[in-house]
Amino acid sequence: MASTPPPLVSVLTPVYNGEATLRECIESVLAQTYRHWDYTIVNNASTDRTLDIAREYAARDRRIRVHDNETFARVIANHNIAFRQVSPDSKYCKVVAADDWLFPECLEKMVGLAEANPTVGIVGAYGLRGTRVEWTGLPYSSSVVPGREPCRLRLLSGRDVFGAPTSVLYRADIVRSREAFFNESNLHADSEACFQVLQHCDFGFVHQVLTCRGEELEGSLGALAGNLGFHWTGAFAELVTYGPRYLTEDELNRRIRVQLRRYYQYLGRQLYAGRNAQFWTLHREKLRALGFPLSRVRVAFHAALCPVELLLEPKWMVQKIGRMLRGRA
Question: Is domain 9-212 in CATH 3.90.550.10, yes or no?
Answer without folding.
Answer: yes
